Amino acid sequence: MPADEAEVAVGRLLELVPAGHELTEAPGGLVELAVYVDEGGVEALRSAFTAVAITPVAPGWEDAWRSFHHGVRIGPLWIGPPWEEPPAGAVDVVIDPGRAFGTGAHPTTRLALEMLSTVDAGGVLDVGCGSGVIAIAAAKLGFAPVRAGDVDPEALAVTRENAARNGVEVEAAPLDARADEAAADVVVANIALDVVEALAPRVRCRDLILSGYLAAETPRVPGLVHRARRELGGWAADAFRPE
Question: Is residue 148 domain-shared with residue 195, that is, in the same domain?
Fold first, then answer.
């Protein structure tokens, strides 16, 4: 499928196969998503996706997806799964991709965290927190207080679990990016373009970091001054400040 459709597809997969998935790049700007399921799972996938290829797998498939998840370095941070050891001296953020709402490996997450590391410390609000990886990384970097918001109760539960696993304090509470106000010293939103554009007019912050969209796209954020832009793998992130 086209890379710009992957985020939506992953969200759909998480509902059908919460145990994990694999995402690999394919030629022509495409990506391939793979999951391991039984016959009942195959039927559920066919009902949700127009193109499904079935390949028999050898015994041990239940844990084979783990080999596709590895830690990544993002400045001083190392974000990785619990079965890998972080490198010496790194600020480690451990995220179990078994309930993946965002593991830190996706370019938009990496870009958002790179941007976060360039702003002054203070309170942080992670809008559309997913796994809580951005909020947890912020807490590890010394930002406080740290809050995380999402419309999905499961994402909030995962964020709380991951924060406890990492020994940091993150307040996770319901937040609708399309309707609620977002206020903190630093607001980070790594979500779809239309959602960050809907959110921007209701943000009250010193620094706004947006990501979750393609490099060919630019968010419309009236009333804010564009400060910086970074791109990685065809994706982008932008930093803004009030006028």
Answer: yes
Tokens standing for 220?
């419309």
Tokens found for residue 82: 């619990």
Instruction: Report DSSP letters for 12-73, one per residue.
Output: HHHHH-TT--EEEEETTTEEEEE----HHHHHHHHHH-S--------TTHHHHGGGG---EE
Per-residue pLDDT of the chain (243 residues; tens, 9 = 90+): 576 676 676 666 666 665 556 667 767 777 777 766 666 677 777 777 777 777 766 665 555 556 667 788 999 999 998 888 989 999 999 998 765 566 777 899 999 999 999 999 999 999 999 999 999 999 999 999 999 999 999 999 999 999 999 999 999 999 999 999 999 999 999 999 999 999 999 999 999 999 999 999 999 998 899 999 999 999 999 999 987
Q: Is 103 helix (H, G, I), strand (E, B) or coil?
A: coil
- 52 lies in a domain? yes
- Name which of 222, 210, 162 is nearest 186 in CA terms: 210
Give yes or no: residues 161 and 44 share one domain. no
